[in-house]
Specification:
The complex is a heterodimer of chains A (82) and B (391). Chain A has 82 residues and is mostly helical. Helix content of chain A is 51%, strand content 0%. The radius of gyration of chain A is 12 Å and the shape is globular. The two termini of chain A are 23 Å apart. Chain B has 391 residues and is α+β, with helices and mostly antiparallel strands. Helices cover 51% and strands 15% of the residues of chain B. Chain B has eleven helices and ten strands. In chain B, the strands form three sheets. A four-stranded mixed sheet of chain B has the order 1-4-5-8, covered by helices on one side. In chain B, strands 2-3-7-6 form a four-stranded antiparallel sheet, with no helix packed on it. In chain B, a hairpin with a 2-residue loop joins strand 9 and strand 10 (277-278). The longest helix of chain B is centred in the middle third of the chain and has 37 residues, at 235-271. The chains are: A mainly alpha (82), B alpha+beta (391). Chains A and B meet through helix 2 of A and helix 7 of B.
Amino acid sequence: MEENKVRVRDFIGRHIRGHELTDDEDIFASGFVNSMFAMQLVNFVEQTFGIVVENEDLEIDNFRSVNAIAALVERKTAAPAA
Amino acid sequence: MSLPTPVAGIPEGAAAGKAGWTREGFRAFVDREIAPFAGEWDRAERTPAETIRRVAEVGYLGALLPREVGGAGMDTVTFGVLNEELGRGCSSIRSLLTVHSMVAFTVHRWGSRAQKERWLGLLARGETVAAFGLSEPGAGSDPSAIETEAAPDGDGYVLRGRKKWTTYGQVADLFLVFARSEGKPVALLVERETPGLTVQPLRGITGTRASMLAELRFDGCRVPRENRVAGPGFGIGVALSALEVGRFSVASGCVGILQACLEASLAYASERVQFGAPLREHQLVQRMITDMATELRAARLLCRRAAELRDAGDPSAPEEIFVAKYFASTAATRAALDAVQIHGANGCTEEYPVERYLRDTRVMEIIEGSTQIQQMTIARNEFRAFDAARS
């Protein structure tokens, strides 16, 4: 889990240079990224963690923070889609 | 006139066919059922329903869908060859494949289980024809500027707004519509029969005149929650992923236009005599033929490379599709201009197809990312790679 968070933090950090991101920080509410970035996050987690993001996963709450993304990856890894 | 298809560096048999599809098969269909009638459809500004039915019947509308749902199971390489051959015959019919495939891809990739069960078979068989509702009077290159509103209402949405330039909107049964819901973009499947939806044909378009463009008006359309493909925040992302499919389709269609320009120019330059010699013996004409033939090969290889990368799941595929679309669409313009020039006054009449090719290329440089958007995106990608290499 922690290793996943590092990779997520690193990816987001490359897009919001000059700000130290905390794991529970809402990246959309804080205005660091916009909704165009949401799909980049989807592509990133799919390619990095080898999971498939599906219709029911396409909720901003799943991508709102480092913690949220790591939790999604954890869930998808633990219970692969049928 | 039918000529051999020179495909530099790519054996014909290998150009397509993992699932039994071949370039020769696509070409034969286009030569028999599309190309001879494209000029007539263009002048009438419509595609006959029978032609759409035939394109569906041979399986092309299910190109990107897997065989399990009745689709053709094509990989991107094969899809590219199909688009190229359709584009050689008629850019409007190629546009039908483009927009229908964008929606089919989206439902397959991002749709819910219930949406897949309901729509994929129908889309694969072409029993449902789909169109893509993103562009608006005030939102073209900037999709985030969409103003169509999907107001939450109970267990669904109420849709209000307008979509413009909806390709095959006049005949589509299903629309993938992008709208704002409480400020955030969503993607919704809207059926044609939805009360409050009106479809207004658009006529007098410069190119792809048979593509039955429409303006869609949503006046309080009730759309159930189960028709939502992408929730708030993901609408534009889903649109962009569909546009990647569309961009590749258009790029490959432009290779077809290049091929058509070359074939028409070779034929005309062989027959037309000026100053006591066929045009083909005039060196300035030869130069135009050379440019066309060279750019055709380059465009084809760029599309092929982008397709192979996409099929391999390579993350650089989107960038390569931008490059392929930029080159193929601008090269198609150059080829069409030269083809008209070779044809002289005849090239400015409906008696020869090159004037249609030229009009169609105007559209190719605008749809699925204008030439300027491609230039900005490609340059940005190059700078990003440069910065990454330095850090």
